[in-house]
Specification:
Distance between the termini: 32 Å
Keywords: ATP-binding, Hydrolase, Nucleotide-binding
CATH class of the largest domain: Mainly Beta
Structural class: alpha+beta
Oligomer: single chain
Helix content: 10-25%
Shape: elongated
Radius of gyration: 19 Å
Protein name: KipI family sensor histidine kinase inhibitor
Number of strands: 13
Number of domains: 2
CATH topology of the largest domain: Cyclophilin
CATH superfamily of the largest domain: Cyclophilin-like
Strand content: 25-35%
Number of helices: 4
Order of helices and strands: EEHEEHEHHEEEEEEEE
GO molecular function: ATP binding; hydrolase activity
Largest sheet: 7 strands, mixed, barrel
């Protein structure tokens, strides 16, 4: 992720605005995004304040008349944000590593000069934090992956990756909530359900929740 000194703010048409925070991809910075989102959600004419990965999207009830004032409020809010610790749930996800769905496990091991067992152990060790939801319904961006298993994203994305795929992309890991294209490397899969439109809250996870991967099986 490219670091920059000052926040970047850009309009998304006339109905939304994107605030991109400076700094690194880590939990302290993400907690500041959560704090800014909580504050901005209470501002007049803001429909939603949606946290992303070290960024925040604001959608408007009506296009702001005083855009400079809104930009100033965002910059001041970011400077004042001390970080919001969200008390979420801890979820344990059983994962089958390798196999047909996790076919990139060997490629990650080769790239990182590790054994398959080392990659699996390193991947399953941390307690991951859900930083934000996005990409597709129910998908969660996780923070906390050990940098020893960083794997550059695919130059040519897969047209279809299986739902439940546990994947690595750059310095991040995540789990696909549904089938779809992906530029990440699948190293395993889980049968857990992340999204169901019939549920009162369709997305199973929320920012602040934590995930621990449990090694169910390793298929070579």
């Amino acid at each position: 992720m490219t670091a920059f000194d000052k926040p970047r703010i850009s309009l998304l048409g006339t109905s939304a605005l994107l605030f991109e925070a400076p700094g690194t991809f880590d939990l302290p910075h993400q907690r500041r995004i959560w704090a800014l989102a909580a504050a901005a959600s209470k501002w007049p004419d803001i429909r939603e304040a949606i946290p992303g990965i070290t960024n925040l999207m604001l959608t408007f009830e009506t296009p702001p008349r005083e855009l400079d004032a809104l930009i100033a409020a965002l910059n001041d809010g970011w400077d004042a944000a001390e970080g919001l610790a969200i008390g979420g749930r801890e979820i344990r996800l059983p994962v089958t590593y390798g196999g047909e769905i996790g076919s990139s496990l060997q490629a990650v091991a080769d790239h990182c000069s590790l054994s398959i067992d080392d990659v699996v152990a390193i991947h399953a060790a941390p307690l991951y934090t859900v930083f934000a939801l996005g990409s597709h319904p129910g998908y969660c961006y996780l923070g906390g992956m050990d940098q020893r298993i960083t794997m550059p994203r695919r130059q040519t994305p897969l047209q279809r990756s299986a739902g439940g795929s546990v994947s690595i992309g750059g310095s991040q890991t995540g789990v696909s909530a549904s089938p779809g294209p992906s530029g990440w490397h699948a190293i395993g899969h889980t049968s857990w359900t992340f999204f169901d439109p019939s549920w009162p809250t369709p997305a199973a996870l929320a920012p602040g929740d934590t995930i621990r991967f449990e090694i169910r099986q390793v298929i070579r």
